[in-house]
Design goal:
Oligomer: heterodimer
Largest sheet of chain B: 6 strands, mixed
Mean pLDDT of chain A: 93
Strand content of chain B: over 45%
Largest interface: A-B, 18 and 21 residues
Number of strands of chain A: 11
Number of strands of chain B: 11
Helix content of chain A: under 10%
Low-confidence stretches of chain A: none
Helix content of chain B: under 10%
Low-confidence stretches of chain B: none
Strand content of chain A: over 45%
Shape of chain A: globular
Order of helices and strands of chain B: EEEEEEEEEEE
Distance between the termini of chain B: 37 Å
Structural class of chain A: mainly beta
């Protein structure tokens, strides 16, 4: 079984809809991250959380919100989706005891906003 | 200017060839650097860390040149399975900064 799972894996939605992407991990890591990946732009950090009570904005947080429901769960919401949020979204985890350089990524969610 | 810059490629090489990628970074305060590998439509995975003294792992060698602010990855004896995108990564303040990646295609 995968250590970091994301649901859904693919989603097509319409402009203005609210969307939630979910991430779960069984690695026991305290840190979790949400990234988006666009062709030619690389991975961009949306939000990150160093523990259940800690939420931090990344470089492109506008239009997104997150919830850290438990150490193992970190969800990303698009309150009102727009077409330029079409991208590949990755959740990642890391262990603060090991340093943050090794992040373990989920398989990704491909989101299309029409 | 992007904080971490890479040549997007693709680099097309035959099996057995040696290939090298470079990456430049703009934040001189960055202390740690890494290479991640990403297969098509898959998640990135850590390949190796980069140290000033160089780091070798089998066929892979990574080097850091702080004076010129660039990082390199050398792959010897390329295999078909090395075909992927290689992401150069710098450790910033509380976050990793990813380059856009260099695509490698190894052909028979």
């Amino acid at each position: 079984d995968a250590d970091v799972t994301q649901t859904p894996r693919n989603r097509i939605t319409k402009t203005g809809k609210r969307i939630m992407l979910e991430c779960s991990q069984t690695k026991g890591h305290d840190r979790m991250y949400w990234y988006r990946q666009d062709p030619g732009l690389g991975l961009q950090l949306i939000y990150y959380s160093f523990d259940v009570k800690d939420i931090n904005k990344g470089e492109i947080s506008d239009g997104y919100s997150v919830s850290r429901q438990a150490q193992a769960k970190f969800s990303l919401s698009l309150e009102s989706a727009i077409p330029n949020q079409t991208a590949l979204y990755f959740c990642a985890t890391s262990d603060s005891g090991q340093g943050m350089h090794e992040q373990f990524f989920g398989p990704g969610t491909r989101l299309t906003v029409l | 200017r992007k904080e971490v810059e890479q040549d997007p490629g693709p680099f097309n090489v035959p099996e057995g060839a040696t290939v090298a990628f470079n990456c430049t970074y703009s934040n001189s305060a960055s202390q740690s650097f890494f290479w991640y590998r990403q297969d098509c439509r898959k998640e990135p995975k850590l390949l190796m860390s980069v140290y000033s003294s160089g780091n070798e792992d089998g066929r892979f060698t990574a080097q850091l040149n702080r004076a010129s602010q660039y990082i390199s990855l050398l792959i010897r004896d390329s295999k078909l399975s090395d075909s992927a995108t290689y992401l150069c990564v710098a450790l910033g303040f509380q976050k990793l900064v990813f380059g856009t990646g260099t695509r490698l295609l190894v052909s028979p």
